[in-house]
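Predict the 3D structure for this chain.
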Amino acid sequence: MSFLENEREWNVQWMRILSILIFCGSLIVSSAVDVPKTDPFTKQNFLCRTWRVLEGLPVNHVECLHQSSDGYLWIGTPSGLVRFTGKEFEHFGDLPLQDGRATVIKVLCEDREGHLWIATKGGVFRKKNSVFTLYNEKNGLGGTETSCVAPSRTGGVWIGGESGLSYIDNSGVKSFAPVDLKDPFIIQVLEDERGKVWVGSRDGLYLFSPATEDFTLIWRNNHAPEADESRQVQSLALDRYGNVWFGLHHQVIRYDGRSFQVFPVLGQGLNSVVTTIFADRYGRMWFVVDDALQVLSGQEIVKYEDPYHLNDGFVRCLMEDREQNFWVGTRHNGLSRLKSSPIRVFTQRDGLCCDSVRSICQGPDDRVWLATDRGVSWYLDNRFETL
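Done. Predicted structure below.
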């Protein structure tokens, strides 16, 4: 056999060995921290990694998430603010509330100048470099308890809370008394690309005009009593087409500027609350309902078939970073990252007789043979058979 033939045969054997090693390695990694699985909606493989207290996260309860312009991941918890560098967590602890209460962080956002804003039950903080400034009723903010904060195209931020709507920029604080609202408590606020300010309140969905300082009613459940929870807009989001989505008790509504489309959610009847709405880069709409993920499939909201067991930790929030990773914060199980992976992992769901693989080899007919704790399987042409 010539040198070239020897080299060619060696390359073939080496590629077979390498393919077996990759296959075996992917099976082994399924028991490690990073577990790639197939998402039934994206048809992608992901490495799912979770950080809890044992991995350095200060607490296992994650209430909100935001990636700042410098790339850091900011985490809001009931025990204060946390920054994640990708390797370690920095806990800022309780922010300096004047009454000494614990800083329960509800929402995080960033303004056009790169300042981080933190909404808490005791006011709103602005983080400028390393300095935290508190805004509450003592320096012009309407009321102490804040429930939402959102960036504005003009450079400031919109704040919603118990006493209505406020706007903060470098010139100071300006509050707007929502006299048109039967209940002044603002639960959600966002500004769209055209500068329209959408306001979710306990009394329905409103559109606020900064020029006239008027609140225009867009939607209200007139069939319910004034104090009924079914009137409350609990969540707000925009899709890729500029439609407004708002979450209520037991349903989600999409508003395209002309008409409303209602999507019932799965849950415990009228008591189910849609606390989060999120549009991913593919245009899919995600919802957190009763601390569990649901997704829009066609014209129906369905349960997310959760291969990563995220819902076991009671989901509170989700976001997508600039590297196209998905991050999920939970009430009891910390923080999870879903990172796209080119490696496919085969488990019992794919036909393997057991996930615990002891040894692996390839036969002369190209079948891959696997010895597991529960028997022997072979793999060929994208299918498993068990002896």
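Residues 3-30+348-386 form one domain.
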